[in-house]
Amino acid sequence: MNFISLADWPRLRIEEMLRFAAAIKKFPEQHRHALDGRVLLMMFQKPSLRTRVSFETAMVRLGGHAIAYDLSQSPWGHGRETPADTALTASRYVDGIMARLFSHEDMKSLAAHATIPVINGLTDLEHPCQALGDLMTLQESFGKFEGIRLAYVGDGNNNVTHSLLDACSKVGIHLTVGCPPGKEFEPVPSILERARGFASESGAHLAVVHDARAAVAGAHAVYTDTWMSYHIPAERRTERERALVPFRVTTALMREARPDAVFMHCLPAWRGKELDADVIDGPHSIVFAQAENRLHTEKAILLTLIR
After folding, report:
1. Residue 266 bears catalytic tag
2. Model confidence over 103-131: pLDDT tens digits?
3. Is 220 a known active-site residue?
4. Can you name the residues that pair with 100 across neighbouring β-strands?
5. Residue numbers of the chain with a pLDDT score lower than 70
6. Residue (of 2, 36, 5, 304) closest to 170 by Cα position
7. Rounded distance, CA 54 to CA 57, Å?
8. Which one of 31, 166, 266, 290 is the catalytic residue?
9. Which of 166, 208, 210, 301 is 20 to 30 A from 97 via CA?
């Protein structure tokens, strides 16, 4: 079993994983030795703070060990080895792989050839570990999924947006994406289409709009992310910022949401760009609860896949 995309996991399994993560968070000592002797290989093509530290901490606290490996120093990174060869070799050494890659196709190739579980720590296309932690955080905040309205504003053609589409549509959260029009900023059509298929079963309502206030109106939670993901060339910054400024999360925009609305961000955040400091540092912000819940949901993933 792998964890590559929330699209692959049925609603019941996602909800089971969230219950497991909540139990681990409440009673962490019950799992101190659950992964004794197990080793996780963590492979990185992209920079990482939360993904590396949370997975490594999770392995240590579960009794296992994690190896962090910079793929730029590997045969794969120098074009001398395929993801398949890397997967087959690592499968002889360790008990699981967590990879943080650029290409989603490389992630799928890694999973297809490995004989051990593979966890998607992020690709340009999807970020399922983040979305699972976000579901846990929303459940803690509101006690339910049905009837909850999440507004995501900013760059909609984004790995976090795509995994939120899968996550929300699976469990019945209504999600509105507010972004500039056009292919560069709107969610990938195939992902939006599959999410609408999941939403038809859960009762979730999905929408893409091009006005930030319309997206946020009446929302229980407002979410944004960086305007410059790791794979976007630096020379695109000025033009992208010009297009995205109307979608900056400000105190005024938060007032369009419910009075008790929470603010979410997967971090790292750039104050003065996609958000204002008084939003992320204010009383409605739950961004560090999100960051913490990555640890608990990742423990649940590890225990489910490699125990």
Report:
1. yes
2. 999 999 999 999 999 999 999 999 999 99
3. no
4. 44, 122
5. none
6. 5
7. 5
8. 266
9. 166
